Amino acid sequence: MASEDSDNDEEPSVALDSCLQPVEGPVCSPEVISLAPGEGQTPLSLFTDKDSELLAFPTLLPTGSFGHAADRSTRLTLRKYFNARLLSCDTRFAESLEYLFYAQYMTEAKQIM
User: Fold this and answer.
1) Nearest to 98 by CA among 51, 66, 40, 58
2) Residue 33 lies in a domain
3) What whole-number distance in Å separates Cα of residue 111 and Cα of residue 94?
4) Containing structural domain, residue 105
């Protein structure tokens, strides 16, 4: 029977905005490919990168405009913006599972922050 202390010794899992590996990292093997296209650069949070939605979903937003960070006469909260996108008569956002999970992550992470 495992003790309760062994469960508390584990590090808590935290959702990260990037795929950064610890310095000791995984051991290189034939299955692991190590790439560093942004070496020397600082990763941006999804909340500080104003174009994250536009770059992540180019097929849903082909013009590359009117994302959450676009200038509007009426300011939209993140939750109202995603509700408008998902409940619109244009169903391409609601039919995309990737966009649904993106919207869920963004609203929940913003609420926690």
Assistant:
1) 58
2) no
3) 21
4) 44-113
What is the reported pTM?
A: 0.61
Tell me if 78 sits within 8 A of 110, measured CB to CB: yes
Cβ atoms of 67 and 53 closer than 8 Å: yes
Q: Which residue has the tokens 């994250």?
A: 52
Work out how many domains the chain is built from and give that number: 1
For 39-86, what is each residue's pLDDT tens digit?
777 777 777 888 888 888 888 877 777 888 788 888 888 899 999 999
Transcribe 79-94 into DSSP letters. Answer: HHHHHHHHTSS-TTTT
For residue range 6-20, list pLDDT tens digits in order.
Answer: 445 555 455 555 555
For 17-24, which contacts have Cβ atoms below 8 Å and span 24 or more sequence positions? 17/43, 17/44, 17/45, 17/46, 18/43
